[in-house]
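Chapter review: from sequence to fold.
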Amino acid sequence: MSNSKKHNKRSNTALLHHCLVRKVTECLIRGEEALAEKTCKLVKENFAANKELSNELKLAKSIIDFKGDNLHANSILSRVRESITKINEHNATQQKRKLLSQIEVLDKNLLDNHIDNYKIYATIGTLFNEWRKPIETQNLPLISEYENFILDWMIQEKTENGAPIVGESDDMSMGERRALLSTMCRKLEEKWGKRVLPSQRDILRAVVADDSDRFKKTAIESVVNLYESIGAYSNKSDSDKSICEKATQLADKLSSMEPDIGNDSLLASLLECCEITNELNKTTKGEIK
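The token string follows.
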């Protein structure tokens, strides 16, 4: 999808709400209850039922949270297109300005952090702005392109956190992603001289999809599985302690690393982690000597 218009995060109602809700969650995880409560109060105040921002958010979320087929997706998009023009834009803009001034005091870097599913938020925000314009000034080619992108996004299968399973943070289609994953696996198999394991494919799939949440989840599961395999292997009377020590060193190294999807060193270690886990499990089960 082209990016002929630069998206303004500060004017995107759904994105502002998303970042504030995430801030509440992060504060609670860190044990910062007072800041979490302050942020939550700010959300409740600015997105109250009588606010234009609340109505904008509902329209955006009807797209973001949609689950259904293409026919219903088209119907929802048409209703959102019609409804957004009925919201008082002047009042919405004034409310955003007030909210942004409060965010500046709360956390001036709130919008600078990585945002999951950013592209769908940006696309919706741009469409809302275009739909509100008089028909003679609308960028019709852009609207058509963005509407098609949204429809494709709406009918994709989603993960629990709302991200399309195939990922959506760049311009690659589902077919292109599958082709890339297949190519990566084939090249690794040629390099290693053996098949890519299902656990390794899961890690690569998260990388290809550029799905940070899934990558983190898969990385953590891989390390946990390695620790469990080490424990099972070490219980064998004829186990090789040096193998356990090397495997434990790798597991400890991985557990101390931040699961960053862009870290190539981490990716290589995770692929090795899957390989060692597989070998330990096979030995424990007596499949190899």
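Two observations follow directly from the output. Confidence is low (pLDDT under 50) at residues 166-171. Residues 174-284 form one domain.
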